[in-house]
Amino acid sequence: MELAEAYFSIPDASRRPNSELYEWLKVKLMETGARGVVFHHYVWCDAWRAELARLKEWVGLPVLGLDSDGHSETSLARSQNRIRAFLEMLQ
Amino acid sequence: MTGEPRQITLNQWDREYDRLRAAGMSEPVYGGPLGRHVADGDTRLLKLRYDDSPAALRLWNFLLTEENRLQAARDRGKKLVGAMKDLGTVPVMAYSLDNVTAFYPDGAWWIPCVMELNAGLLQIADSLGIDESFCPVRAMLGAFVTEAHFPIPDLLTCSVGATCDDFSALAQRLNGLGHPILWWEIPHRRAAEPGEDAVTLPGGFSAPRSQIEFVQSELNRVRAALEETAGRSLDDKMLANGIAKANRVRRLLGQLRHLAFTAPRCPMPALEMLIAEMLAIHFCSDQDETIRVLEELLDEVSRRVAAGTGHLSTDAARIFWVNPVADLQVMNLLEDSGGRVCGTEYLFAHALDPIPTTLSPMEALAQMALADPMAGSAIDRAARIVAEIRRFGAEAVLVSRIPGASHCALEGEVIGAIVREQCDVPVLEIEVPSITDATQATLCTRLEALVETVKEKRQ
């Protein structure tokens, strides 16, 4: 039962509706004073990929959308470059 | 009809229409020449070839006037229910209420094809972050934004869980745009574990009783929402009547499929058969008229089979078709290549099986929903395909992938391997986007090669 309750407390993008994800994120953004959002998703993950545009509309902060296959060197280097550029933009 | 049936162009149909009208052909209110739909922007119709029977004309006119029918239903005060991702369960419940009309917003996936990308629906989906990495059903998002292809429904339902993840994602996007959705969950169908009560579902799959009870509880939520929308109760007697009517549609389609897929000559082309089968899941917004359309089609097919007439010759390659096509023209290409469809699995095979009438209506509907081929493994789906290949005597299998649809990328190989092993028939996998103009030469070559392989194998 505890495992089930813990599972249902995860604010995942794949929940329907997934409004809890946005409620959770709103709290976290306020708590941390975040100035931007890095949105990472795996290339073929439709559930997360579909959230990127909605998040950009909703969040009111700069958003960096990063996709990757999760395990290649080229993907890592590309992501590092893009994150550095994003950080520079925020400064 | 007398003589040999033909496949004719839209312009030929309009001339034939004038002749039939002059000869006294009667039509339903939505009748008329097919050419008028081109003026509405349905330009792909100019490139298709159609069966030349009045029954086929009625089928096409029925399909192409759904938007008018929905608007008319709303004008008459009926409540509209958009049953998303649901392949044949919620519409059965909705049509049990006489003041509700259900439709299938996902059907918008054919608009980019029929309007040859001119409606701009895919561009709208792109702008909303739902790009070509998703199934062409993303066109539905554009249709909701423009409100130009169907009225915004009074109630939107969407099945989620063990259904298409592309659709789930874009339905969530729709929800995020401000359209409330009643989500109901379908679990991944599994076999009963030791100690669990196993139930054989319509169509032959099996599931533990606990899963059926869960789906039934989900459908009870849908029932309550339908009652609230309709402003009246939906009791078991009404549901039983609704199931009886849905079963009438399913039995007609069963007879139609049997004749069309087993007759020595092909009595009805693949394209018209595809459109007819689709009626099982949504009734094209009029359940009673669906029955009349199918009855007329069945009469025509029965006459042709009795007379030994048909399209193509008796040696046409007998092809089993898996998955619906985003571009309707591809169905014509099979016949151009010397093949005929003898068996189909368009992802809603369960919606062609009669709904049990010996159970309580809600349990019967829960069993049907859980029998959805997409709710289980690709191995389950392949087993059903193998059984149908044997039943219809198909000589090859064509797996038609839908670009962007994640399940297609994974299922085709599994289905192909099982079919090859168990039926010893060739399997061809193709990909069909909304418009295939750029790849038609390649497609034709591949289809011709499949037909040649079948004929070679006969010797």
Name the features:
heterodimer; A: 91 residues; alpha+beta; Rossmann fold; two-stranded parallel ribbon; 57% helix; globular; B: 459 residues; alpha/beta; 4-stranded parallel sheet; 12 strands; 49% helix
Structural class of chain A: alpha+beta
Q: How big a fraction of the residues of chain B is strand?
A: 5-15%
What is the straight-line distance between the termini of chain A? 46 Å
Instruction: Specify the biggest β-sheet of chain B.
Output: 4 strands, parallel
What is the N-to-C succession of helices and strands of chain B?
Answer: EHHEHHEHEHHHEHEEEHHHHEHEHHEHEH
Major pleated sheet of chain A: 2 strands, parallel
Most extensive interface: A-B, 16 and 21 residues
* Helical run tally of chain A: 5
**What proportion of the residues of chain A is helical, as a percent range?**
55-70%
Output the radius of gyration of chain A.
15 Å
Morphology of chain B: globular
- Taking the alpha carbons of the first and last residues of chain B, their distance comes to 36 Å
Low-confidence residue ranges of chain A: none
Per CATH, what is the topology of chain A?
Answer: Rossmann fold
| Contiguous helical run count of chain B | 18
List the helices and strands and how they pair.
The complex is a heterodimer of chains A (91) and B (459).
Chain A: H1 2-8, H2 19-32, E1 37-42, H3 46-49, H4 51-59, E2 63-68, H5 73-90
Parallel strand pairs in A: 1-2
Chain B: E1 7-8, H1 10-22, H2 36-39, E2 50-51, H3 54-64, H4 66-75, E3 79-84, H5 90-94, E4 100-103, H6 111-114, H7 121-127, H8 139-146, E5 155-161, H9 165-176, E6 182-186, E7 198-200, E8 206-208, H10 209-230, H11 236-262, H12 270-282, H13 287-307, E9 317-322, H14 329-336, E10 339-345, H15 361-370, H16 378-392, E11 396-401, H17 406-423, E12 427-431, H18 440-458
Parallel strand pairs in B: 3-4, 3-5, 5-6, 9-10, 9-11, 11-12
Antiparallel strand pairs in B: 1-2, 7-8
